[in-house]
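Below is a concrete protein record.
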Amino acid sequence: MNLRELAERIASGSLKETLMNDFPAEAVARLQEMGVDSIEKQLEQVIQIPLDLSGPTSYELYQLFYMVSWQQLCANLKLPAEAKVFEIAAGDTVHIPKALDAYSESASYVTANLNKVLTKWFIDKTVGLNISIRIIEDDGVRILDYVPEGTVDVVAFHHAVNDIVQTILSDIEGIDTVGSDWWVIEPQMLRAVMAYHERGELKAAVYGDFIRIVETCAKLLKPGGYMIFDNCTFEGYEDIGYSTSFHSAYIDLTRQWIQEADLSLTEIRLDGYDSEHWWLILRKA
């Protein structure tokens, strides 16, 4: 996403209100008072590796970056107004449903969520959106039990590759990812990922299950539909025994694994969407 363009849209007040309906009032007021140059400068401080969320409106600008990026993707890919989007493991993050609502109120959204606490928060955060929203409380690998093949325009993996890898390893390690508070157990999950990686055992442990999820999601797509991955790296990973450099390589790791699996998905690259660390956009034949 072009940061100058995003800064101009924020400063002009042209963004749909629902994109910011859960922002603190003081953050909205501060953004309205900032000029284009100031917003762009702060965006540049926020959107880096790792993300810098230390500023007074950094968290809101980070959210706007992803919401507007996904909204613009819908436009760039010329999705129909009635587009159907499936997001794997949204957790309590609502960037994509908000982006889809801003793109077209005729669209529909489905997510598969296992963690009960995150699902409750997700429901609370999406109140007021006009699009159709469906939450399936089951593992994404069983999504075809709920959504027919060939009916989805976009499958979205928003900051989800790491969540999938963590969940696969948690099943092996006996960590409860369904009933537990995700944010309490996440450091334990991240340390498990790091341990497998450092022992050279990560691919052997997760590749098969990961590819099965991707292959299943590919079956959901209509011909010409898109599978889109994004990734972001937060500060403080080293403090909990994890690795910024490892996490920042998830997009390339995903690209390599999918190419190796030969799933008939072709990568496309768009201006403004960094394909090295931040985005992977695949099109179904």
